[in-house]
Amino acid sequence: MDLDFDIVDLDPVEHPEEGDTAPDFTRPLVNDEFWEDESLASVCADSDRVVLVFHAMDGAFPATYIWNEIRDRTWHEQATVVGVSISTPYEHKQLLEEREIEGDYRLFSDPANGVAQQYSIDMDLDGMAGIEEPRPSVFVLDSDRTIEYAWVAQEWPDFPDYDEVEAQL
């Protein structure tokens, strides 16, 4: 498959780091049956470990690659894994079905990209005036939202070191 895109260096950002408390937020959390507003704090309180994955909008190739890799590595067996993107709950339902991850993973819907702004990982989409999404990022959190691992893309497209994330799990 020949993908035609340019690698873009992203400006440095001051995102939350290991040892920081991850900012809390409440957004619609989509699962295999429905969606409802839920906070990150409540997701963390119900789990020993949470992997928070910021990804491109559903349907974009980076989101497909990231979720295929996470699915194939079965991270849900070691932690609660939730995603965040600008996609709507309807688009998230479709992603869960298409990637065959419904039941194992849930996705926060954040169309205004406010959560990425809280984490200082928002970026403009090239060539789309007024449209932004989160940079690809992964945060591993404990039950108190303390960040145990943080990875934020320095270029687009970029993907996490999945082995490093697994080492944290």
From TrEMBL:
Keyword tags: Redox-active center
This protein's name: Peroxiredoxin
Superkingdom, natural source: Archaea
Residue intervals of the Thioredoxin domain: 16-169
InterPro entries associated with the record: AhpC/TSA, Thioredoxin-like_sf, Thioredoxin_domain, Tpx_Peroxidase_subfamily
Cross-referenced Pfam families: AhpC-TSA (PF00578)
PANTHER family in UniProt: THIOL PEROXIDASE
